[in-house]
Amino acid sequence: MTAVTSRPATNVGVDPTIGFRRVAGAVALPVAFACQLVCNATYALASTGNAGDGGTGEQSLEFYASHASAMVFATVFALVGCLLAVPGILAALRVLRPSKPRLGLWAAVLMVAGYIAYFGLNVTNFDSLALAQSDLPRAGAGAVLDAAQGSPAAMPVFLLFVVGNLVGTLLLGLAIVLGGRRVGVPWWAGLLVLGWTVGHVINILGGGEWFAVAGGALEVIGLVILAAAAVRTSNAEWSVRG
To answer: Between the N and C ends of the chain, which has fewer C-beta atoms within 10 Å?
Structure first.
């Protein structure tokens, strides 16, 4: 009988895409929120001195009609940012997993869910643009828009976005502040990420859109620092973090 010598399967369990996924996720993280920053800055420029899309349906349609190109531009960047946020946030979760696994998980789940909801909300901008550019009477079209936005069925989607956007980002910033140093991320990068939550809350309380823009810029800088840690992580360590 001929003996068969087996060779050790050295490649078993090795993921050939691990390096690509690590780097792609790291790049997607700050780029996603840079896209949101472009969206917010465009909206801030367009809405300065008027009600923007935060007034009645009729006022919103007047705004969309006057700033149609800006709103298309802002909406496209918001949608791209939402798509890139999903792999980017998952990369952030892997970076933070050795130091703050539970807090990082809560942050990631809320943020991913929130930005998926935000994608859906932003798609409706194209409906508003179509109404604004139609021949329908502005008052009647505005009433339709008010009815659509006031639907009880739409409220959970909006609330999910608010929680993911504000609370999720807050938790991500805290995870970096409390555990970032253990994974090569300076604690103050978390404070930069928290800039979004602070700036956006000030905006909601009446401070103006530019506070949200400033907070978003700080967040992007913090996420660049977090993404750099993902790039520096070896493929072997990235795989172990699961």
So the answer is: N
pTM score > 0.85 for this model? yes
| Plot region of 7 (φ>0 → left; ψ -120 to 50 → alpha; else → beta) | beta
Q: Given 3-state DSSP classes, what are the helix, strand and coil percentages for the chain, each rounded to the nearest 5? A: 80, 0, 20
Asked whether 219 and 189 are in contact (CB, 8 A), the reply is no
Cα distances (Å, whole numbers) of residue 55 to 59, 161, 177, 238: 6, 20, 37, 47
Closest among 177, 241, 225, 233 to 33, alpha carbons compared: 225
Tens digit of pLDDT per residue, the chain (242 long)? 444 444 444 444 568 899 999 999 999 999 999 999 999 999 999 887 555 666 677 888 888 888 899 999 999 999 999 999 999 999 999 999 999 999 999 999 999 999 999 999 999 899 888 888 887 776 777 787 778 777 788 889 999 999 999 999 999 999 999 999 999 999 999 999 999 999 999 998 988 899 999 999 999 999 999 999 999 999 999 998 87
Q: Say how many C-beta atoms besides its own lie within 10 A of residue 150's C-beta.
A: 10
Q: What angle do CA 6, 11, 14 make, to 5 degrees?
A: 150
Angle between helices 68-96 and 169-179 (to 10 degrees): 40
3-class secondary structure for 23-58?
A: HHHHHHHHHHHHHHHHHHHHHHHHHCCCCCCCCCHH
